[in-house]
Amino acid sequence: MKRIMNVMAIATVLFASCMKNSSTPQNTNGNSTNSTIVTGNFSITKFTDNNSAEDKTADFNSYTFTFTNDGKITAINNGVTASGSYTEKPSHEGEGAKLTISFGNAPLNQLNKSWQVDLISNNAIHLSDDNTASGEVLEFTAQ
Question: Mind listing the domains of the chain with CATH numbers?
Fold first, then answer.
């Protein structure tokens, strides 16, 4: 009986140690990437689409983007407001954290993608394509 108890105790310890840590990764300011951590007004400071040579940053120079706690993005350009949404997915089983952006109309729908999170802080959001060869990046900076 003692031997069975020892085997069960060892099995329990091994099972517990083999379980993956389900906590979310930490970003540069200590906030988890699975919750809305950045709120406020941002502007796009870099956007390359399809390849690194296709710089479309200037297309969004006059926009102000606001990320809210409820998964919404508001884009304001010359007094015209457009609404979009975003979702966050924490890193999991070797896949990096993702931020998926969705807008309905052009030109904002060019931002639609499930982006890899490279950095999220109170002052910046840096995103990239998970295929580094594409050279696609999207960077927001706090205003």
Answer: 27-142 (2.40.128)
